[in-house]
Specification:
By secondary structure, the protein is of the alpha/beta class. It has helices at about 30-45, 55-70, 90-95, 115-120, and strands at about 1-10, 50-55, 75-80, 105-110, 135-140, 150-160. The chain is about 30% helix and about 20% strand.
């Protein structure tokens, strides 16, 4: 059995128009929501074996705040350039390449690819994946290479406003 946690980065700031999309930081709400989600997953006892995170600043900050609150080992976090500005097919390719010793994986990325992946891989459909939301999908497979479309079951869908 394998589990993928898809997390959309926390709310980002559009305040500084001189920054590129890749350089945008989190805003005040994002700085509060990312650690909240780390605390939530830690309390559920559902921390992933590994985390793949987009290279974008807002995703990196989300990951750092999440992992600090969850007391998660930063050595298990890997920046993956391909997550930034890519689609569901790339995310699926990354999932299928992970070490089979891992039973769970988190991907911290962006919409629309996060939403596309959750909708394609799980038995649920979401019109919207809010910022800092986490969708956990479980697959009844032994190897990551077996993960595929419509093969997963949604375990939970958590987002910050649900806990405020």
């Amino acid at each position: 059995m394998k589990t993928v946690y898809f997390m959309r980065h926390a709310k980002s700031s559009w305040k500084d128009g001189s920054l590129t999309d890749h350089e945008r930081p989190l805003n005040k709400r994002g700085l509060k929501d990312a650690p909240l989600m780390g605390k939530l997953l830690k309390e559920k006892g559902m921390l992933p074996d590994g985390i793949l995170v987009s290279s974008a600043r807002r995703a990196q900050e989300t990951c750092r705040l999440f992992t600090e609150m969850a007391d998660y080992d930063p050595a298990s976090v890997h920046t993956e350039e391909m997550i930034y500005e890519n689609d569901y097919d790339i995310l699926l390719q990354l999932i299928r390449q992970q070490p089979d010793a891992w039973q769970s994986l988190m991907i911290i990325g962006h919409n629309p690819s996060t939403q596309e992946a959750v909708n394609a891989l799980s038995d649920q459909f979401f019109d919207k994946i809010p910022t800092a939301a986490i969708a956990a999908i479980q697959f009844m497979v032994r190897n990551w290479s077996e993960v595929g479309q419509n093969r997963g079951r949604l375990l939970f869908f958590e987002y910050p406003k649900k806990h405020k």
